[in-house]
Amino acid sequence: MSEALQGNVERSALATIWHGLSLTPEFRKGLAGTLGLAVVATVGKIIVPIAVQQTIDTGIKSGTPDLPYITWAVLVCAAAVVLTALAGYIMNVRLYKATESSLASLRVRGFRHVHDLSVLTQNSERRGALVSRVTNDIDQISTFMQWGGLMIIVAFGQLFVASVLMLVYSWQLTLLVWACFVPLVIALPRFQRLLSRAYTTVRERTGDMLAAVSESVVGAAVIRAYASERRTAERIDRSVDANRAAQIKAQTIVGFVFPLTEIVAALAIAGIVLLGVSLGVSGDITAGKLVAFLFLVTLFVSPLQTATEVLNEAQNAVAGYRRILGVLDTPPDVADPGEKGVLLPRGPISVAFENVHFSYPGGPPVLREVSLEIPPRSRIAVVGETGSGKTTFAKLLTRLMDPVGGRVTVDGHDLRDVRFSSLRERIVMVPQDGFLFDGTLEDNVRYGRPPATREEIQLAMTELGLADWVEGLPAGLDTPVGQRGESLSAGERQLVALARAYLADPDLLLLDEATSAVDPATEVRLARALEGVTRGRTAVSIAHRLSTAENADEVLVFDAGRLVQRGPHAELVTRPGVYAGLHASWVSAAHS
Amino acid sequence: MASKVTSAVMRQGLRVLGVAIRTERAVFAMAALASAVYGGMTVASAWALGWATQNVVLPAFDRGETAAGALWTGAALIVGTALLKAIGVAGRRILAGVVQYRMQARSRRDVTKQYLRLPLSWHHQHPTGQLLSNASADAEAAWAPLAPLPMAVGVLVMLFTAAIAMVFTDLVLALVGFLIFPAIAVLNLIYQRRLSPLATRAQQLRAEVSEIAHESFDGALVIKTLGREELETDRFRRRAHELRDANIAVGRVRGLFDPMLEALPTIGVLAVLAVGALRLSTGAIDSGDLVQVAYLFTLLAFPIRALGWVLAELPRSVVGWQRVQAVLDAEGSMDYGDTPVASSGPAELKVAGVSYAYGQAEVLHDVTFDVPPGRTVALVGPTGSGKSTLVQLLARLVDPASGQVLLDGVDVRDLPYGAIAASAALVPQQTFLFDDTVRGNVALGLDTGDEDVWAALRLAQADGFVGRLGDGLDTRVGERGASLSGGQRQRIALARAVVRRPRLLILDDATSSVDPQVEARILHGLRDTAHASTVVVVAYRMATIALADEVVYLDHGRVVDRGTHEELLVRCLGYRNLVTAYEREEAERAAIDLAPAQDAEEEEEEVSA
Q1: What is the pLDDT at residue B552?
Q2: What is the pTM (predicted TM-score) of this model?
C-alpha cells in the first residue's frame, strides 16, 4: 500500500475498531440490547449440566428417582431452552442488521471518497487496491462481525458462565480444569501466527496462479503466434501445483491444531474422574455435581477449537478496517468549495494562468512560470514534445490538480473558488484514452448529459458527422460496447468519448489528443465537424498533428515545462525556435 | 442456475463426487477410514464416560471407596478413546484437504491445457472473465463438497454405532434418539435448502458490487471531468444496499436455524433425563447408561450437521463442474500436417480466395494477393476493413472459412505444429507482454544469447530505455508489462519478433504508440536489415506505407485494389481519400483562408444579435 492512502494516524487494533464504529452510528444503535440478549443466549448452554446434576442428586437418591421432581425440573429447563433460543434468534437478527447497515454505509462512503480524491492520489494506488478498499476489505469485516464476532461473544460468554457454575459446584475441580486448558490458551496465539502465515502464502500463491492462468487467456494470440503453448503450460502447472501445496500445508496445520483441544478435554475429564472420586469419598462433592462437570468441560472445547480461526478473522478484520479508514482519513487535496463556491454564468469562457508552477510530490518541476490568457471563443492548440508539460497544463486547466504556485482563473475567478458542479458543467475535457462503460453506445453518449433524449443523441451524432458510422454498426445506437468499450476499436472508442463530451454542451472543450487513434479520413471529417459545432465556444486542443495547430487562432508551444512560444501558426513557423523544429519533423513524417 | 437442492441436482452432485472418489481412490479411502475412526471413537468416548460413571464414580459415592484398578481403567479408557478420536479428526481433515485440493489443481491444469489447445476462434467466442472464472471459482466450487464429505462418511458410521449402542443400552432411550437425530438432520437440510439460494444471491451481488467499483475507478478520469461522482455513487449505493439486504436475508435464516439446531439436542438430552428417570425407577437401566446416552446426545449434536453441509454444497458444485466440463468438452482443435517447410531465405506468401466470418458477419471476402520472397507489402484500409483478421489468418491463428493461405507454396494447414511460428513472426496491434524479465519476453523460449537480444532491442529502438532500467535485461516488466509505457511495450514486442530472424515478419499497426520520429528510425532499421525477411505491414501512416514495395487496399473485407503507392494514388479513389486526408485538408484550408475576414464578421453579427 502506498504512503498516500495510509492516513497519518497510527492506531492500535482496538482504537481502529473503535474509530471505525464511531463512523457508523447504525452499529452502535441498540448494541447494549444485543449484548444483553447474547448473555441470555449463552446461559442456555449450562442448562444441560444443571439438569443432569439435579436429576442425579435430587432425583436419584439411593436408586429411587423422584419422578414428579424430575418431570418438573425437565419442564423448567425445556422452557429455559426455548427462551434462550428465542433470545439467540433476536440477537442474531439485530447483529446482522446493525453490522450490515453500518458496513454498507462505510462501503458507500469509501467509494465516494475515492472519487473525491484527486487524480494524483488515485494514481498513486493500483486500481485493484482501491477496489479492494470498498469490496474485499469490507467483506472481511462483515465475515468477522457475523461469524467471528458472534463467536467471540458466545465463546467468552460460554467460558464465563461455565466457569461460574463450576466454581459454585467445586473450586478444586475448577482449578483442575483451568490447569488443563491454560497451557492451550497460551499456545493458541502461536498456532494462530503459524496459520496466518500459511494462509498468507495461500493467498499469494492463488494470486500467482490467477496471473498465470490469465496470461493463457489474455495472451492467447501471442502464445499461438510464437508457439509458446508448452512454456506457458509449464508455468501454469508450476503455479497451480505451488498453490495446491500451500493449501494442503495450511490444511495440515489446521488438522493438527484442531483436535488438540479434544485431547486436552479428555485429560481434563480423566482428571475430574480421578480427583472427583477422591473428593467424593471425603464428602466434598456430590455425584451429580461431578457428572455435571463432565458435561461442563465440553463447553470449553468448541470456543478453543475455533479460537485460532477466529483470531485470524479478527486480525483480517482489523487490517481491513485500517485500510478503509486510511482511505477515509486521506483528505481530498483538490477539494470542492461547495456551497460557498462561485457559480459561473453560461457563455464563452476566458482563462488565465498567472505565474503557474507545478511539480509532482518529491519530483522536479513539470511546469515553470507559466502565464497566459485564453480569450473567450478562441481556438487554441497546445504543442510540444512528450514530457514538455502539455498534459499537466490540461489537468490544471480542468482542475484535476491544483498548481503548486500561482493560480489559474476562469472568467476572473480562481479555479479553487469555483463550485465543482459549475466547473464540470462548463469545462469538459476529452482524455486520450476513450474510456467507455459497459452498456450500449447510447448509454455512453448519454453519460455526457443524463436527461438527454434519444433524438438529442442522434442529433449530436449527426452534427459530429458520425451518423453514417453509427448506422454501420450492428445495432446502431443500441450496439453494446462491451466492458471498458472493448468491443469497439480504439478509434471508435474515441469517437464515442468525443460525442459524450459534445453532448455535455460545455463552454470550454479541451481535447487531449482525443482523436489520435482514428483513421485519417475520419479524423479530418471529425475535425471539421468540431470546428463547426465549437464555434462560439472556447476550444483548447492538445495537438498531435500539424493541421490542428495550423487551424488554431493561437498556438501555445511548451518545452521542458515552460511556455516558450505563442502566436498564430503562420507567424511561429517562420521564426526559428521550438515550433519550427516540431513543424519540420511533422512535415517529414507525413510526406516521407 | 441450479441453487436449490432438487433430486436431479442431487443425482448429478453425487455423480461428481463419484468422479472424485474414483480419481483419488486411495487417499479418499484413507480419509473415510480416518473419519470412521473418528465416528466410532466419538461413540466410544461416550461409552467410556458412562462406564466410568457406573463403575467408578457411583460406587465411590455409594460405598465411599474406590477400586484402584477400575479408577485407572476408567481414566485410560477416556484418554485412549480421545487420542484415537483426535488422530481420526486430524487424518480426516488433512486427507480431505489433499483430495479436495488435488482435484481442484487437476481441473485447473486440464482447463488451462484446453485454453492453450483450443483455437483462437474459440477464444473469440468466450469472454475473458468467463474463462478466468472457469479456471478459478468454478474449479473450486466443483470440488467444494469434498471437504465435508469424509466427515459425512464418519458421521454415518457414528450414527450407525450410536444406534447400535443405544439399542443395546435401552430400547426406549434409543427411541428418543431415533426421534431427535433424524429431526436434527431434516431441520439442517431445510436450513441449507433455504440458505443456499440466498447465499448464492449474496455472492452474486458481491461480484456485482466489485464490478461496479472496478469499472467506476477505471473510469475515474471521465467521471471527474464530467462531474458525475454523485451519479456513480448512486449506482454503487443501490447495489451496495441490495447486497446489504441480501446479507441480512442470509442472517435471518442463519439467526433462526442456528439457535434451533442448538436447542434441539438440548431438548433431546432433557427428554433422555425424563424418560431415563422413568426407566431407572423400573430398574431397566442403571445411572451409567443414562449418563452415556445423555453424553452421546451432546457429542452428536454438531457433527450430524455435516450431512447437510455436503448437500448444501452440491448445487454449487454441479454448476461449477458443468462449466469446467463444458471447457473440457469443447471441440475444434487445429489440425497440423507434416509437410516440411524451407528453413532459410525469405518466405513466399500467397493468399488465395480467402473468406472469414465471425458468426454471421463476414469480415473477409475472397481476398487474394501474394508477396514474393523478400518483398514488403502494406495492408491499408479504413477502421473495420478486416486488416487485423487477415493478419491473424497469415500467422494461422485462425483458419479461413474458404480459400487458402500458402507459405512457400504449401497450405499452412499442411505444416507441422510450430513450423509457422518458426518461420513467421507476428507483432499484433494489442501488445501482450508476459510477467517475466525483458530477456524472457524477447527470447520467449528461443535459445539465444544476450548479444542477439540486445541487437533486436537496438533495431526496435528499445536498447536505450532497457539499458536505463534497473536490472537491464533482467528487469521484470510486471503483469502484462504494467511497469512500461505503451510505446515501450510495443518496442519490446517488436524486438521479440525480430530476434527470431523471421522469414516472414507481420506487423499489425505495431508502432502506433511510438513517437513518429522513433517510428521512422525503426522502419529504416528494419528496411536495412530485413532483407532476409518478407514483410507484411498494416499501417495508416504515410511514412510506413512509403517503405512498401506494394500496397493492398482493403475495404469492407474485399481487396479493392493493389499496386504501388503511386499507382493506387492515381487510380484508387478510396485509397487516395484515406491516405491523403490530411494533405487535402491542408490544401482546402489554404483555399478557404482567402476569405477569413468575411466569416469572422458574420459570426460577430450572430453573437451580437
Answers
A1: 94
A2: 0.79
pLDDT at residue A1 above 60? no
CA distance from start to end of chain B: 64
The more confident residue out of B344 and A395 is A395
Q: Phi and psi dihedrals of B348, rounded to 5?
A: -105, 130
CB A259 to CB B480 under 8 A? no
**Confidence category of residue B605, pLDDT binned at 50, 70, 90:** very low
pLDDT above 70 as % of chain A:
95
Q: How many CB pairs under 8 A join A and B?
A: 444
Q: Which H helix or E strand runs over A278?
A: helix A260-281
Contact B105 A226 (CB under 8 A): no
Residue B576 CB-density burial (10 A; 0-12 exposed, 13-18 middle, 19+ buried): middle
**Nearest CA of chain B to the CA of A9: how many Å?**
25
Write out chain A residues lying below 8 Å of B45, CB-based.
266
Please identify among residues 444-483 of chain B the ones whose CB lies closer than 8 Å to any CB of chain A: 444-445, 479-480
Place of cell 481535447: A511
Going by C-alpha positions, the residue among A435, A499, A444 that lies closest to residue A467 is A499
Query: Is B176 at the interface with chain A, CB within 8 A?
Result: no
C-alpha cell at A134: 470498498
The Cα of A452 is separated from the nearest Cα of chain B by a number of Å equal to 15
For A222, the closest of B76, B250, B428 (CB atoms) is B428
pLDDT greater than 70 at residue B609:
no
CB contact under 8 Å between A263 and B225, yes or no, is: no
Which secondary structure element, helix H or strand E, spans residue A42, and what is its range?
Answer: helix A31-43
Give the DSSP letter string of B342-383.
Answer: --SS---EEEEEEEEEETTEEEEEEEEEEE-TT-EEEEE--T
At B246-281, the pLDDT tens digits run 999 998 998 899 889 888 888 888 898 888 888 888
Q: What is the grid cell recorded at B275?
A: 424418560
Per the CB < 8 Å rule, is B115 touching A217? yes
Give the nearest partner residue to B112 out of A213, A586, A588, using CB atoms. Answer: A213
Distance between CA atoms of B318 and B321, rounded to whole angstroms? Answer: 5
Q: In the structure grid, which three cell numbers stand for residue B304, read together? A: 450430524
Asked whether the beta carbons of residue B220 and residue A48 sit closer than 8 angstroms, the reply is no
pLDDT of B90-141, one tens digit each?
Answer: 999 999 999 999 999 999 999 999 999 898 888 877 877 788 888 988 898 8
Question: CA B454, CA B472: separation in Å to the nearest integer?
Answer: 10
Task: Determine how many CB atoms are found less than 10 A away from the CB of residue A438.
Answer: 17
* A122 CA: distance to closest CA in chain B (Å): 8
Chain B residues closer than 8 Å to A240 by CB: 105, 108-109, 112
Instruction: Name the B residues in 30-59 with CB < 8 Å from any A CB.
Output: 45, 49, 52-53, 56-58
Q: If pLDDT is split at 50, 70 and 90, which confidence band does B527 have?
A: confident
Q: What is the tens place of the pLDDT at every residue in A466-510?
A: 888 888 787 889 988 877 787 777 778 888 999 999 999 899 999
pLDDT at A418 over 90: yes
Lowest mean pLDDT among A110-119, A549-558, A577-586, B557-566: A577-586
**Alpha helix positions (H), B134-228:** 139-142, 149-169, 171-218, 220-226
Q: Quick check: A93 and B223 CB within 8 A? A: no
Nearest-CA neighbor of A580 among A565, A562, A561, A563?
A: A565
Segment B325-341 shows an average pLDDT of: 84
Q: Looking at the complex, report in whole angstroms how far the Cα of residue B78 sits from the nearest Cα belonging to chain A.
A: 6
A176 pLDDT above the threshold of 80: yes
Q: Is the pLDDT of residue A307 over 60?
A: yes
Chain B residues lying within 8 Å of A60, measured CB to CB: 277, 280, 287
Contacts of B579 in chain A (CB under 8 A): 520
